[in-house]
Task: inverse folding
């Protein structure tokens, strides 16, 4: 047996690791939140790398912008041309800065309007292409964030924190297939559950076939799930389809455009630490 | 020493993922940095080292890009084993064969992900156009990165 294993190290190792991965995967599918402790530990280990990289990008960007802004002009004729070029570049940079300012202003307004304590965070990693819809934020347990906290943007609901380390948090978007949130149709107060259905799409389920729901109706959170407060925008109904039995399925375009998500607010819940948190 | 190199490679992949997200979001969905690390190990190291790197890099990718730990680890282990098998039979030290390995690894990654997603009850995401584009981008990015690493690191023979 030992001879066989030593002669076939690679196949034996690959089988063992594949089985281990499958067991880990099935354990987490069966028991939601089971892997978040290990995720938090790995996030903690690699947090300096992630935060350092984001800081390097910011620093480089600032230096480059400063260089453009302070560049000297030589010769009057050339100066006019260069001034024009520089102004065009600056115009682009200022437009970008203005857009960022607008985003941050709306985030600040949302933060001030929110009845819950909130923490603003920046997205440092985003996954929208595979079977999962998740992001990593640059704020963590040190900022009061814990697993289960809701995450919002000025345009609507983003998702919830599933794991947090000291300086980073992982967010599951409402568009993730395994997410869920209690929701209500704003116009008729019809209740249901929204689950993720891909990029910028969610589906409202458990809605009676007799319920009054129409395309372009706004869907908001109902607050019944205890994660998101009521009244936050989820998205607009784009299609009302037939469901199973006496229920119908409602396709919703999310209010948040996840592909351009850069800054978010985390709603700090007063509950005690969730079991998925990293042990201190 | 090999463990430290592996740790540094995965740390570099994490850093590159964050830099892509903040500096070049358009490239975020096109380039799988963790896959580049796994393929580099598969074509330049022993098969066992490639498989172990597949597990480690996949697990880290799970932390940053998956809801469940083990999903990308499973996929990357499979990719490392298959590309490592090619690496032990063919000469993959030139740019063109490496481009082909990276493109093939991207397709394998996409197919394995879709199969595993459907087994786990998740909607499988296979878009032929997107996968082809990713294969091209990963191939090009990998060729550049592998050349830089070859020039930056002392030459090592395949074990």
Result:
């Amino acid at each position: 047996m030992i001879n066989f294993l030593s002669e076939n190290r690679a196949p034996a190792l690959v089988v063992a690791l594949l089985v281990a991965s499958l067991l880990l995967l099935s354990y987490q599918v069966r028991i939601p939140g089971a892997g978040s402790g290990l995720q938090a530990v790995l996030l903690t280990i690699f947090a300096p790398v992630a935060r350092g990289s984001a800081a390097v990008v910011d620093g480089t960007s600032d230096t480059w912008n400063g260089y453009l802004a302070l560049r000297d002009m030589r010769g009057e004729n050339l100066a006019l041309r260069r001034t024009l070029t520089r102004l065009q570049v600056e115009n682009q940079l200022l437009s970008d800065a203005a857009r960022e300012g607008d985003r941050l202003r709306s985030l600040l307004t949302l933060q001030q309007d929110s009845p819950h304590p909130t923490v603003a965070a920046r997205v440092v990693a985003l996954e929208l292409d595979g079977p999962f819809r998740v992001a990593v934020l640059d704020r963590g347990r040190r900022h009061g964030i814990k697993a289960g906290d809701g995450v919002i943007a000025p345009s609507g609901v983003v998702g919830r924190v599933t794991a947090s380390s000291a300086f980073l948090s992982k967010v599951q978007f409402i568009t993730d297939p395994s997410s869920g949130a209690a929701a209500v149709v704003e116009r008729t107060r019809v209740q249901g559950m929204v689950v993720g259905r891909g990029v910028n799409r969610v589906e409202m389920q458990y809605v009676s076939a007799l319920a009054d729901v129409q395309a372009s109706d706004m869907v908001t959170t109902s607050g019944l799930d205890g994660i998101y407060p009521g009244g936050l925008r989820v998205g607009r109904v784009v299609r009302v389809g037939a469901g199973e039995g006496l229920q119908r399925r409602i396709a919703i375009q999310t209010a948040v455009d996840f592909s351009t998500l850069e800054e978010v607010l985390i709603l700090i819940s007063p509950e005690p630490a969730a079991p998925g948190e990293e042990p201190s | 020493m090999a463990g430290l190199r592996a740790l540094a490679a995965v740390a570099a992949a994490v850093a590159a993922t964050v830099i892509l997200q903040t500096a070049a979001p358009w490239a975020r969905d096109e380039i799988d940095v963790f896959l580049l690390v796994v393929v580099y190990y598969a074509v330049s190291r022993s098969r066992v080292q490639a498989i172990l790197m597949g597990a480690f890099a996949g697990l880290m990718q799970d932390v940053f890009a998956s809801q469940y730990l083990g999903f990308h680890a499973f996929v990357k282990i499979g990719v490392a084993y298959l590309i490592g098998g090619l690496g032990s039979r063919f000469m993959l030290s030139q740019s063109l064969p490496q481009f082909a390995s990276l493109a093939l690894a991207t397709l394998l990654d996409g197919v394995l992900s879709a199969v595993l997603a459907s087994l786990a009850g998740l909607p499988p995401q296979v878009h032929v156009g997107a996968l082809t584009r990713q294969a091209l981008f990963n191939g090009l990015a990998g060729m550049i990165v592998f050349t830089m690493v070859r020039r930056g690191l002392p030459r090592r023979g395949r074990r």
Q: What stands out?
A: Chain B is about 80% helix and 0% strand. Chain B touches chain A through 50 residues (CB under 8 Å).
